[in-house]
UniProtKB/TrEMBL annotation:
Residues 70-79 have a biased composition (Basic and acidic residues). Residues 199-209 have a biased composition (Low complexity). The gene is DDX4. Residues 28-43, 714-726 have a biased composition (Polar residues). The lineage of its organism: Eukaryota, Metazoa, Chordata, Craniata, Vertebrata. Keywords: ATP-binding, Helicase, Hydrolase, Meiosis, Nucleotide-binding, RNA-mediated gene silencing. Found in a mRNP complex, at least composed of TDRD1, TDRD6, TDRD7 and DDX4. Interacts with RANBP9. Interacts with RANBP10. Interacts with PIWIL2 and MAEL. Interacts with BMAL1 and CLOCK. Interacts with Tex19.1 and, probably, Tex19.2. Interacts with RBM46. This is RNA helicase. Residues 296-324 form the DEAD-box RNA helicase Q domain. SMART domains: DEXDc (SM00487), HELICc (SM00490).
Length: 735
């Protein structure tokens, strides 16, 4: 459903919201000056205490911007919000248009914008607080100063600079980690950014930026090297000049809490499920020359004792298919593109052999140094995912001298740097923060032996691809011949495979476990025909039936995530949310509340679609279907992990989802799921000759897109050869 439709739907409901404030975000005493206390409708203002109480119980504080609140109101909300697990709103005018210095907050807010959320004119964007509170459905109606006063901070990040991104739009994949960078580093696709400012704030930016040829985003000065000193002034606590501050944007002050250090926490894991052994029956195809044979047991990998101990403590007794094939390939020093179903252990498939190599090579303990030169960089598209990978790296390297470090956007840059300078062998990073740190000359690339792209298709698409290209052409980065490059994902569209070749040695191996881009068979998929205006009712009905079982509800836009989370809380369903407009602290809090079961429902945008491994997620509900089938595959893969079973229910809206009918039928069929007759009918009526399964290219690449490779072997994962069906593309040379 488009945003505009959504506006139409939410507007009538918005007036019934109970605004709840987060204590640390709103204080009329401190920030009241920036509030325009224009009265708003009483229905918006004066909701009864019962509902407020409900929010309180349900752990949800919908922090819309209600700048017209008086101090008394604010205090009441302070009480509620501190108990709330869900603080939607972020900025309450204190950093609004009157405040050009951006005392605090999140620099990522400057570029974390979506085209859908940026329909406001530049005047309205001007100097608004950078972080997005809940954008009221009314805010498309006003743009004058008084409105900005009253609701200026509403817009927050959403007002921002109008950094629309073609791929992220409002369905976010950490846009602060990707598209904004392409504007800065690789030539902007957003001409509005360069040259003319969008208002006070962006003017000041473009003012600074124009010395270098216009606004280029935070990263620009880093990459050109000019940001070095300004970083010092910011991250090392020195004074920033106005120009620097304006150019740099608001400081990010969030320092994530360190993960628990005790062994039990490090090795905490959930159980494999009843279908874990069924993995062995999945066909695996390896293509490329001279692939080493698969291993069948951990012992065959010949790992060192410490690694074996860690594997045992992690509860791994048996290899998953992707591990059986990838581990020997990586140990043999080969480049690899591996595609395996969600939740089937791809992370360990690359971490274990990399660590084994490092141990074998006699890695020296890394020590404090201003410039660290890690041996391995792992990049992934979202902050929560890199953090998860880091925790896995820390687990498997436990008791060794290998030090893993994680850095990601939305956290204080100085904190990232402090982590790095203490020593770094394996760096897990989101692309944006990685490029920043490289620009600050805290990371040298000369020693890189392993470059891992997790969710590689995402890392190479138009959102992150330019950033990745920049990374491999950074000074010092060993050429592809000199490093080992590893790519993992559950989906690998053909066109992305072709792009990947630039990163990989020509003799890379391709491992396909099951159907490339196929859904996990342990997820029972149901598609329901639900019209836009019935979705909420249906959602509540389903959630009430589900009870307390952990459920992720995916929606297409950030503001809808806020809206649905608010709505569910009103329905007394304890809910939290995660999306790219929430501050990192809030995102981590939300994930924590969901993981521990405090909020059994997590409403999420695509930011949570990939990679997240959360125990006991029994249900995924696609309140909105995503725009692409590969996104669907990743989303439903948040359940049914590691041999456990799960359920996915998708609302199919005849008005907007017909383009997905065909690929959906294919995914359902391949995963041996029931296909509703009505869906088949739609798929048939929208039949596109030569259909290849995706709205954007061929998700269903039968396997390796290279042609005519030799040495293709097709095995099931117990190691037995199966019939080698000729590949239709075998008759051409792929080099
Ligand atoms: N051999 C194994 N034995 C037991 N558990 C395993 C094994 N390999 C991985 N796991 C566990 O399975 C879960 C899923 O693994 P992981 O997150 O690496 O999956 P993935 O394939 O990367 O999924 P996605 O495609 O969603 O990113 C994790 O909890 C991991 O610890």
């Amino acid at each position: 459903m488009g945003d505009e439709d959504w506006e139409a739907e939410i507007k009538p409901h918005m007036s019934s919201y109970v605004p709840i404030f987060e204590k640390d975000r709103y204080s009329s005493g401190e920030n009241g000056d920036n509030f325009n206390r224009t009265p708003t409708s009483s229905s918006e203002m004066d909701d009864g205490p019962s509902r407020r109480d409900h929010f309180l119980k349900s752990g949800f504080a919908s922090g819309r911007n209600f700048g017209n609140r008086d101090a008394g109101e604010s205090n009441k909300r302070d009480n509620t919000s501190t108990m709330g697990g869900f603080g939607v709103g972020k900025s309450f005018g204190n950093r609004g248009f009157s405040n050009s210095k951006f005392e605090d907050g999140d620099s990522s807010g400057f570029w974390r914008e979506s085209s859908n959320d940026c329909e406001d004119n530049p005047t309205r964007n001007r100097g608004f607080s950078k972080r997005g509170g809940y954008r009221d459905g009314n805010n498309s109606e006003a743009s004058g100063p008084s409105r900005r006063g009253g609701r200026g901070s509403f817009r927050g990040c959403r007002g921002g600079f109008g950094l629309g991104s073609p791929t992220n739009q409002d369905n976010d994949l950490d846009p602060d980690e990707c598209m904004q960078r392409t504007g800065g580093l690789f030539g902007s696709r957003r001409p509005a950014l360069s040259g003319t400012g969008n208002g006070d704030t962006s003017q000041s930016r473009s003012g600074s930026g124009s010395e270098r040829g216009g606004y280029k985003g935070l990263n620009e000065e880093v990459i050109t090297g000019s940001g070095k000193n300004s970083w010092k002034s910011e991250a090392e606590g020195g004074e920033s000049s106005d120009t620097q501050v304006k150019f740099q944007g608001p400081k990010v002050t969030y320092i994530p809490p360190p993960p628990p250090e005790d062994e039990d926490s490090i090795f905490a894991h959930y159980q494999t499920g009843i279908n874990f052994d069924k993995y062995d029956t999945i066909l695996v195809e390896v293509s490329g020359h001279d692939a080493p044979p698969a291993i069948l047991t951990f012992e065959e990998a010949n790992l060192c004792q410490t690694l074996n101990n860690n594997i045992a403590k992690a509860g791994y007794t048996k290899l998953t298919p992707v591990q059986k094939y990838s581990i020997p390939i990586i140990l043999a020093g080969r480049d690899l593109m591996a595609c395996a179903q969600t939740g089937s252990g791809k992370t360990a498939a690359f971490l274990l052999p990399i660590l084994a190599h490092m141990m074998h090579d006699g890695i020296t303990a890394s020590r404090f140094k201003e410039l660290q030169e890690p041996e391995c960089i792992i990049v992934a598209p979202t902050r929560e995912l890199v953090n998860q990978i880091y925790l896995e790296a820390r687990k498997f390297s436990f008791g060794t001298c290998v030090r893993a470090v994680v850095i990601y956007g939305g956290t204080q840059l100085g904190h990232s740097i402090r982590q790095i300078v203490q020593g770094c062998n394996i760096l897990c990073a989101t692309p944006g923060r990685l490029m920043d740190i490289i620009g600050k000359e805290k990371i040298g690339l000369k020693q890189i032996k392993y470059l891992v792209l997790d969710e590689a298709d995402r890392m190479l698409d138009m959102g992150f691809g330019p950033e990745m290209k920049k990374l491999i052409s950074c000074p010092g980065m060993p050429s592809k011949e000199q490093r080992q490059t590893l790519m993992f994902s559950a989906t690998f569209p053909e066109e992305i495979q072709r792009l990947a070749a630039e990163f990989l040695k020509s003799n890379y191996l391709f491992v396909a476990v099951g159907q490339v881009g196929g859904a996990c068979r342990d997820v029972q998929q149901t598609v329901l025909q639900v019209g836009q205006f019935s979705k909420r009712e249906k959602l509540v009905e389903i959630l009430r039936n589900i009870g307390d079982e952990r459920t992720m509800v995916f929606v297409e836009t950030k503001k809808k995530a806020d809206f649905i989370a608010t709505f569910l809380c009103q329905e007394k369903i304890s809910t939290t949310s995660i999306h790219g407009d929430r501050e990192q602290r809030e995102r981590e809090q939300a994930l924590g509340d969901f993981r521990c079961g405090k909020c059994p429902v997590l409403v999420a945008t695509s930011v949570a679609a990939r990679g997240l491994d959360i125990e006991n997620v029994q249900h995924v509900i696609n309140f909105d279907l995503p725009s692409t089938i590969d996104e669907y595959v990743h989303r439903i893969g948040r359940t049914g992990r590691c041999g456990n079973t799960g359920r996915a229910i998708s609302f199919f809206d005849l008005e907007s989802d017909n383009h997905l009918a065909q690929p959906l039928v294919k995914v359902l069929t391949d995963a041996q799921q029931d296909v509703p007759a009505w869906l088949e009918e739609i798929a048939f009526s929208t039949y596109i000759p030569g259909f290849s399964g995706s709205t954007r290219g061929n998700v269903f690449a039968s396997v390796d897109t290279r042609k005519n490779y030799q040495g293709k072997s097709s095995l099931n994962t117990a190691g037995f050869s199966s019939s080698q069906a000729p590949n239709p593309v075998d008759d051409e040379s792929w080099d």
